[in-house]
């Protein structure tokens, strides 16, 4: 327990805090609601909070090695190893090279590091309150009590820092959206999303949720989830209006609620800024029971309505409203072959490029669905082409995809490690989707089952549909590498991916 606590605090201390250019003495930091007093103060450099790594790491029992000659810091425990070099804008995490927006630096013989991606990997929820210059951090177990996992509130969190797990050297989309820490507002440096729709009212009367919006062209999505029963409404390219925000009692975790007493259908309604890129407001109706509903939008006035007075949405049909097929009757599934062209991905023991496996595997999946009556496959790339991570997300959004799957092969600096892993970023339907895909994938690979893991990866974090990333096997393991490039193995894996997609969508394989 002490070790776990140390890890979480370690991640917090390494986390980058945006939108500050003042002295670090004014910074207030809270972990699970408790004020913290760091033993060594950080410095604000180019709007990033830089933390002395040696003091923090050694106090918390992690192993850290410093090579003065090469100015290299290596941090490791029994699960993860990472290497950083002073003034270099990349790091190596478990054998993969990832990019950083702000490199480590050396000040008065003290190594300072900005490692937002480390914090994300460790699962902290981080909120910035500009009014008080405070950082609120919540561990995963604590935040699950404060805010249900389908509302991972990180108000105004900019997309800074490196991308991990995806293996690309282009982890950031190059923007730095400012925030007032709670409303996705416009303070801070960097480019700011313009012309956002404003959420002006959120009311619940006569079993109807009515959301007043400033614009008529919003495109909300809705999803019905179970265990517990709830309805999730996402409104992309939106934020709370200043008047609405100031009238609400938003908590430190960025969430506000409508509490309902003795209501037969609903326990409460909660809302927050779910994402800042794009700026997305999420509203969740926590149900007391499985409940049918109707979802509509109106113009003049511009409203979004969830009507619980009966309706056409059948709560017992086992389908996910977030995966309703389009008008042509087909589900759209995006298959993303990781890396490509100038980005080779990981390099295998025999000097093969990961990008080649990823593409071959993606093409085999697409071929299996070529004449499928229910599913249409969209490939992010069908040849040796390079796409930025944000471009892969754009492909999925423009296709109005129902599902997103990114295909990769893994690597690590230990040749004995072998097996199949599946990653997700969002504790909404993505977790369930990842679990279904993984159970099918391991049957196809017949490699060791290394489990389903949560990690903040750009393509699974920034997509708006259920999304997962498949690490099929390890290029750095002799057995895995030999299998990955075999045609029979790829055919078997392609079939397992198809089976997983069909199972999740409730279709016959």
From TrEMBL:
This is Cell wall hydrolase. It holds the Pfam family Amidase_3. It comes from Paenibacillus selenitireducens. It comes from the Bacteria. Residues 166-180 have a biased composition (Low complexity). Residues 393-502 form the MurNAc-LAA domain. GO terms for biological process: peptidoglycan catabolic process. Residues 144-192 are annotated as: Disordered. Residues 1-23 form the signal peptide. One of its GO terms (molecular function) is N-acetylmuramoyl-L-alanine amidase activity. The keyword Hydrolase applies. GO terms for cellular component: outer membrane-bounded periplasmic space. Keywords: Hydrolase, Signal.
């Amino acid at each position: 327990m002490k070790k776990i606590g140390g890890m979480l605090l370690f991640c917090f201390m390494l986390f980058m805090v945006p939108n500050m250019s003042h002295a670090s003495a004014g910074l207030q930091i809270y972990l699970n609601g408790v004020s913290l007093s760091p033993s060594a103060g950080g410095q604000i450099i180019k709007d990033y909070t830089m933390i002395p790594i040696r003091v923090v790491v050694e106090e918390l029992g992690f192993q850290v090695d410093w090579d003065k000659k090469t100015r290299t810091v290596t941090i490791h425990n029994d699960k993860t190893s990472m290497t950083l070099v002073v003034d270099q804008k990349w790091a190596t995490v478990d054998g993969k090279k990832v990019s950083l927006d702000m490199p480590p630096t050396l000040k008065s013989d003290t190594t300072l590091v900005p490692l937002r991606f480390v914090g994300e990997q460790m699962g902290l929820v981080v909120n910035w309150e500009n009014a008080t210059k405070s950082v609120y951090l919540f561990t995963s177990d604590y935040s699950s009590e404060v805010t249900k996992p389908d509302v991972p509130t990180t108000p105004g969190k900019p997309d800074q820092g490196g991308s991990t797990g995806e293996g690309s050297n282009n982890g950031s989309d190059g923007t730095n959206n400012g925030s007032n820490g709670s409303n996705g507002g416009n303070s801070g440096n960097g480019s700011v999303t313009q012309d956002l729709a404003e959420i002006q009212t959120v009311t619940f009367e006569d079993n109807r949720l009515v959301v007043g919006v400033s614009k008529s062209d919003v495109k909300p999505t809705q999803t019905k989830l179970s265990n517990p029963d709830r309805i999730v409404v996402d409104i992309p390219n939106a934020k709370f209006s200043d008047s609405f925000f100031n009238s609400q009692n938003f908590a430190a975790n960025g969430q506000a609620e409508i509490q309902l007493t003795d209501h037969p259908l609903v326990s409460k309604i909660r809302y927050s800024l779910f994402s800042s890129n794009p700026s997305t407001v999420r509203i969740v109706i926590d149900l007391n029971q499985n409940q049918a509903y109707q979802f509509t939008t109106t113009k003049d006035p511009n409203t979004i309505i969830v009507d619980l007075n009966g309706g056409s949405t059948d709560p017992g049909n086992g389908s996910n409203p977030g995966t309703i097929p389009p008008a042509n009757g087909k589900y759209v599934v995006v298959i993303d072959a990781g890396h490509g062209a100038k980005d080779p991905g990981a390099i295998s023991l025999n000097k093969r490029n990961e990008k080649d496996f990823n593409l071959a595997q993606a093409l085999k999946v697409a071929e299996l669905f070529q004449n499928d009556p229910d599913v249409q496959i969209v490939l992010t790339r069908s040849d040796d082409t390079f796409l930025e991570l944000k471009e892969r997300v754009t492909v999925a959004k423009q296709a109005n995809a129902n599902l997103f799957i990114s295909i990769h092969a893994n690597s690590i600096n230990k040749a004995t490690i072998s097996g199949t892993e599946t990653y997700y970023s969002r504790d909404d339907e993505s977790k369930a989707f990842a679990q279904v895909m993984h159970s099918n994938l391991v049957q196809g690979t017949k490699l060791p089952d290394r489990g389903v893991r949560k990690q903040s990866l750009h393509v699974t974090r920034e997509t708006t549909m259920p999304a997962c990333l498949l690490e099929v096997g390890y290029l750095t393991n002799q057995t895995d590498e030999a299998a990955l490039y075999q045609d029979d193995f790829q055919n078997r894996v392609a079939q397992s991916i198809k089976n997983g997609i069909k199972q999740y969508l409730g279709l016959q394989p």
